[in-house]
Design brief:
Radius of gyration: 22 Å
Strand order of the largest sheet: 1-4-5-8
Number of helices: 12
CATH architecture of the largest domain: Up-down Bundle
Order of helices and strands: HHHHHHEEEEEEEEHEEHHHHH
CATH superfamily of the largest domain: Butyryl-CoA Dehydrogenase, subunit A, domain 3
Number of strands: 10
Distance between the termini: 16 Å
Strand content: 5-15%
Structural class: alpha+beta
Length: about 400
């Protein structure tokens, strides 16, 4: 793969960097710019979203005919990293989870009529969305084969019953993609459906309190109490729900990593700035070898993460599934983010533990990174399966055609 980026991608990266620096970072220090769940206030957000649209920095991940900028996964890697230099960044550009992943899978899998009804309002920023898959024990989590939510066909309609939990953004979402069991077939037993929050039969049982700051709409527990949906709500086809989840979750995991790299860089930036200005015992903190080792290691770990992410993005842009590449990036970058926040807090001392910086916000947010979209251990098992099947070819190089 070629590690150079196109002038088009660099132009977007540069303009996003300037937008984040001038428009978004200053809001982090304003109490009125925060909502009750430690995210950007909706009023402040809409002002920034209008500016992002006007600057042509909207929906970079989608094709131009869908309303996006057509950057591809490699271009997204460059720009998403830049967006998340601010904790408020991605949602401003309509590039935050779960809408980001939902828009990409709808662009790929929905019919023209479904795109007009379910995708276009998301692209326009008129509504929010959720992806309802995970369930409480003993239902499906990382293993969708354990799913207990059912969709029973009755004539030309499906009746959905079951419970979902930790559904990101559900409280503020208007559009949902829900995955339910339509048969016991191990490969074609799941089906994905589209529904609106006002369709009868949906109840939000609770907004689950969590350790860290929340995305807009929180993480909710949902109950489907006999929701009836017509056949035109099926996404991709009956029995193809597992394919829908694979199409969505692989790229979505990688976009998480792209954004987390931006947060890891922000942690390093705050740590370096403090170390360069803090003196103690007659020595500047940044002159201490122990601090230099910590920051040098973080710089290396971040660059390793960038290479893993870019390799996975390149694989996806080639039309491949990139399962092992995405798993490697997910494990490394999730752990890196937690380490970057921890090291930066340690260097900042009590200041880092306080709310005088965003480090404590990032630290609490970072712990979920090793759980969302598959825990570390699940991805490690995936890698071991590839190693078992491929043996030494696990590390093969692609050979160019002459």
């Amino acid at each position: 793969m070629d590690f150079t980026i196109s002038p088009k991608v660099e132009d977007f990266r540069r303009r996003i960097a300037r937008f984040v620096e001038d428009e978004i970072l200053p809001l982090e220090t304003r109490p009125d710019a925060w909502d009750a769940h430690e995210n950007i206030d909706p009023t402040a957000l809409e002002v920034l979203r209008e500016k992002a649209r006007a600057d042509g920095l909207w929906c970079l991940q989608l094709r131009p005919e869908t309303g996006g900028q057509g950057l591809g996964k490699m271009g997204m890697a460059v720009c998403y990293e830049e967006m998340n230099r601010s904790i408020f960044g991605p949602v401003v550009f309509n590039a935050a989870a779960p809408d980001d992943g939902n828009m990409m899978v709808l662009e790929q899998a929905a019919t023209p009529d479904q795109k007009a009804r379910w995708l276009a309002p998301l692209v326009a920023g008129e509504v929010r969305s959720s992806f309802a898959m995970t369930e409480p024990h003993p239902g499906g989590g990382s293993d969708p084969g354990m799913m207990l939510t059912t969709a029973r066909k009755d004539g030309d309609r499906y009746i959905i019953r079951g419970r979902k939990w930790f559904i990101t953004g559900a409280e503020d979402a208007a559009h949902f993609i829900v995955v339910a069991r339509t048969s016991d077939d191990p490969r074609r037993g799941l089906t994905a459906f589209l529904h609106h929050r006002d369709d009868p039969g949906l109840r939000i049982d609770r907004r689950i309190p969590i350790m860290g700051p929340e995305e807009h709409g929180g993480h909710c527990e949902l109950v489907y109490e006999g929701m009836e949906l017509p056949a035109d709500r099926v996404l991709l086809g009956e029995g193809l729900g597992l394919k829908v989840t694979q199409m969505r979750l692989g790229p979505a995991r990688l976009t998480h990593c792209m954004r987390w790299l931006g947060l890891a860089q922000r942690c390093t930036e705050i740590a370096r700035e403090y170390a360069e200005n803090r003196h103690g015992f007659g020595v500047r903190l940044s002159d201490r070898e122990s601090i230099q080792i910590k920051l040098g290691d973080l710089a290396m770990q971040i660059e390793m993460g960038r290479l893993l992410v870019m390799k996975a993005a390149w694989e996806l842009d080639q039309g491949r599934f990139a399962r092992k590449e995405v798993s490697m990036a997910k494990i490394h970058v999730a752990n890196l983010l937690h380490k970057a926040a921890d090291v930066a807090i340690q260097i900042n001392g009590a200041r880092g533990y306080s709310k005088d910086t965003v480090l404590e916000w990032i630290y609490r947010y970072a712990r979920q990174a090793r759980l969302v979209d598959g825990a570390d251990e699940v991805h490690q098992m995936v890698l071991n399966r590839h190693l078992t099947d491929e043996k030494r070819d696990f590390w093969r190089w692609d050979v160019a055609t002459e």
